[in-house]
Amino acid sequence: MKKIVSLIMIVTLVSSILAGCGSSSKTNSNSAAAEKKDTLEAAKEKGVLIVGSSNDAPFAYIDKDTKKYSGIDAEILTEVAKRIGIPKVELKEVKFENLLLELNNKNIDLVSDGMYIKPEREKIVQFTDIWYKQGEALVVPKTSPIKGIDDLKGKVIGAQKGVTFLELAQKLQAEGKIGRVDIFGSSAELLLATNTGKIDGTITDGVVAAYSISKDPSLNLKIVSPYKAQASGNIAAAARKEDKTLVEAINKEIEELKKNGFILKVLKKYGLNEDYFVPAK
Hints:
The protein folds into two domains: 137 residues, 3-Layer(aba) Sandwich (D-Maltodextrin-Binding Protein, domain 2), CATH 3.40.190.10; 88 residues, Periplasmic binding protein-like II (D-Maltodextrin-Binding Protein, domain 2). The protein has ten helices and 14 strands.
């Protein structure tokens, strides 16, 4: 009798262990399947693409009046997302210098914020095909006598942290063409500092500057003209290295939106002309 009871206990114990192993195996299998799901597939399933931006107009920002995701990059990406089966694009505000870090930490799905394609960035992310191109502007108070780079010697010039134009300003400072470079966290801070006389001028994004000055009558500023941009570059969205299917899907639609005139129409809506447009391949 004791042997029978012992045998029953052993069989029960073994069955429990096997059941536990089966459950664990099933759980692990489900987890592995979830991990294998790429960003495009996951975004389609959720119905939303989370995009990182520093919330700077006119690239990708939340409109103060409509509360909607707006801007050049925003309108292009929203149309692309619809075409690849994602009905909504949601902006997550991130400081510009932290955008690629947040992307690779998987806190956002994509970066779209007027970002230049640069070799050092391509080492850690992959870019889509070019959306459009642009360059920097020299912005000064309307009453300023500054007419170009040659007038910046001994002057205090502002630039934004993490952007290409800061590198240009620092290069000019190293060459003795600028007295001092003050660094700011956003384009809005730069323009405000220039407007209040905290700095003599700023080297900043030409598209952002033109848009901001045209929209804000309190900014008593002007863009120096004529001026030849020294840091012009190509704009695209940034994705994680492994998200090849997402990038391929975006590229296919970007090509079509160039051909049908959608992208040029968006550029013109924000005051940009054909000089900023990059034709289809």
